[in-house]
């Protein structure tokens, strides 16, 4: 990460974030800032609402901090909205209720890319710019998508972390949030393809059926226990969920198999530090969610102010967070993977 957006600035432990944040509700807050119907030339201070899949999850709270930092740097009226329920209907209600508040832009992590698409299309019809981040919606329902990592790069990085845990390979199982989570679905698809076709990863085999935990720690632990019982030769559990990966590792330790079976995938370093330092696991991966939230908010601001049109090939200058190129279908790849090991995990405090 470049510039002054410090990884240490946004430190928080996974357990330290409660699900009931009073400042976050399904109904968007009111404001007298300029509305989404204003022309880009008339907007001098944009009003941007960030809507995560659901509030209270540590990962999204870190991304929120990045959005707040972008707001401070660029003079944005930034508001964080959402429900603490991990349900598509709750996010749809959040987005529907946001439109009458006339934000200039919505920055959204889609809990279900197809289910929330009508609400996003409606927002766009009202003149509101829509930028997705972390998890995309249907292409015609948003202007741009800021992807934390290209799906293939994310898959490779998770498999690289799996290799650090189990260099000899072995049987892999996958836990995802849901069958409709677009990023998780793509990650598993690419991981299976890489195991099948890339010589680097052919030491692995995989359980074809994917398990779904809904970003719930208790459910993730239950699934991890079931996987170990059903597959005695299981070596690695991989998850794109920052909840499921550490929860699966805890289940492995509780089963007395720490250092024999491994969980890896996406995790905040604060949630897996003890696992790695005690030798139960050797590697997890992530990116900087604060900087991702920063970039997504800057992208939305530049769309609103007409600094970018959202066309393929355009360059986006996110200041201290770097420069990026708009790719096909309006995708912007952040592409700064991090792998946490015993050698470097103490450098990260988020």
UniProtKB/TrEMBL annotation:
UniProt-recorded Gene Ontology molecular function terms: carbohydrate binding
| PANTHER family in the cross-refs | ABC-TYPE SUGAR TRANSPORT SYSTEM PERIPLASMIC COMPONENT-LIKE PROTEIN, D-XYLOSE-BINDING PERIPLASMIC PROTEIN
Q: Which GO CC terms are listed, alphabetically?
A: outer membrane-bounded periplasmic space
Domain spans labelled Periplasmic binding protein? 48-307
Keywords, ordered alphabetically: Signal
Entry keyword Membrane? no
Q: Does the keyword Signal apply?
A: yes
| Organism this protein belongs to | Raineyella fluvialis
Q: Where in the cell is it found?
A: Cell envelope
Signal sequence bounds: 1-22
**Pfam families per record:** Peripla_BP_4 (PF13407)
Q: What is this protein called?
A: Substrate-binding domain-containing protein
**SUPFAM superfamilies given in the database record:** Periplasmic binding protein-like I
